[in-house]
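Run log // design_07
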């Protein structure tokens, strides 16, 4: 066998990370890049040594491309992924899988009928930080998980982004921009979500650009800039999640799982590495006893790479006939959870999540991104 041919559609800023990392994996080879802007595709191909460039259609028509990496804007994810499936290609899509619940679910049916696979970001779930933490929970270091807490709060991307309006428009906001990291992580650890309840708010109806050529101009806020979500999982566990672009206090990457025999803090779900540690219950407190709880550190095992791990896991899983970790089903369930939360915030009612997903597998113990296995 030989490396699997990969094509990339959409070569914006994030494509640099993908191209650099994919070039370091012996099991894949990027053969073509495509973009709506021909000069941008040419520039990225020359920069990263990719032999072919052109439009998205050129990538789909390339005979050596077996898997397409969809790095287009979120509003184009469904269309591009569907076109790639029609062309007989496996697809890895950046998050979110789509912005429409029915259309995202239809992609799964289309892929199954075509005999191809879909993968969906985030692939931070494949990083050694999260994988080591998940193994520790599976080994019982906190007993049976009971509930979880997550938080992402920031002053907002308008503080630094030269064109932040799209991050406050329909299809974005902190829920759909950052939610995929947190809800994918929770589902991977606690299983599928049964129902959600949420409340949302806008701190203000308009915000101002603070940097770049348009500094000083304002733009509308179309979606809640702060949302709090309660999730009830099919297995009986629960979680509460805060996602905010309105907080003066910067707190990123809070992910805690509390169980019958301890509590564990996990790495930032938007990162591939980070600290994992847990504490055990205090027991019965008596006069004079210390209430300090010693942290037990979890050793992180595995190579730290970055975006592109999901593509690598897909091609190896296809060859081995095993499920891949960041699957289309997981991406679809995350979309369903987030859109259900959006609906709940608008109706002030619990909303039943319509989709489900099977157990999310761990990477093989001997997974080495830099080995040649195909």
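design_07 sequence
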């Amino acid at each position: 066998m030989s490396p699997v041919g990969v094509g990339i559609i959409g070569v914006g800023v994030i494509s640099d990370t993908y191209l650099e990392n994919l070039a370091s994996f012996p099991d894949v080879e990027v053969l073509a890049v495509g973009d709506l802007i021909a000069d941008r595709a040419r520039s990225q191909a020359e920069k990263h040594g990719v032999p072919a460039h052109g439009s998205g259609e050129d990538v789909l028509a390339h005979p050596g491309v077996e898997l397409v990496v969809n790095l287009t804007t979120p509003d184009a994810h469904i269309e591009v992924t569907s076109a790639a499936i029609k062309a007989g290609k496996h697809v890895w899509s950046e998050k979110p899988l789509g912005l429409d619940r029915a259309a995202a679910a239809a992609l799964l049916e289309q892929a199954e009928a075509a005999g191809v696979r879909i993968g969906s970001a985030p692939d931070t779930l494949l990083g050694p930080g999260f994988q080591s933490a998940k193994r520790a929970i599976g080994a019982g270091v906190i007993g049976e998980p009971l509930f979880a807490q997550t938080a992402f709060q920031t002053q907002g991307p308008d503080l630094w982004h030269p064109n932040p309006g799209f991050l406050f428009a329909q299809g974005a906001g902190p829920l759909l921009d950052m939610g995929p990291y947190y809800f994918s992580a929770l589902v991977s650890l606690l299983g599928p979500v049964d129902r959600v309840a949420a409340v949302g708010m806008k701190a203000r109806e308009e915000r101002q650009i603070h940097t770049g050529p348009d500094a000083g101009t304002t733009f509308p806020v179309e979606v809640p800039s702060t949302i709090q979500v309660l999730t009830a999982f099919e297995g009986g566990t629960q979680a509460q999640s805060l996602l905010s672009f309105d907080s003066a206090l910067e707190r990123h990457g809070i992910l805690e799982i509390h169980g019958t025999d301890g509590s564990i803090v996990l790495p930032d779900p938007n990162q591939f590495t980070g600290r994992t540690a847990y504490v055990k219950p205090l027991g019965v407190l008596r006069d004079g006893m210390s209430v300090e709880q010693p942290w037990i550190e979890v050793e992180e095992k595995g190579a730290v790479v970055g975006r592109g791990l999901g593509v690598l896991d897909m091609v190896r899983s296809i060859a081995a006939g095993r499920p891949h970790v960041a699957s289309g089903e997981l991406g679809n369930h995350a979309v369903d959870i987030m859109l259900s939360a959006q609906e709940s915030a608008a109706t002030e009612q619990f909303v039943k999540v319509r989709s489900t997903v099977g157990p999310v597998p761990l990477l093989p113990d001997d997974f080495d991104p830099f080995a040649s296995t195909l």
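The chain has two domains: 4-120, 125-297.
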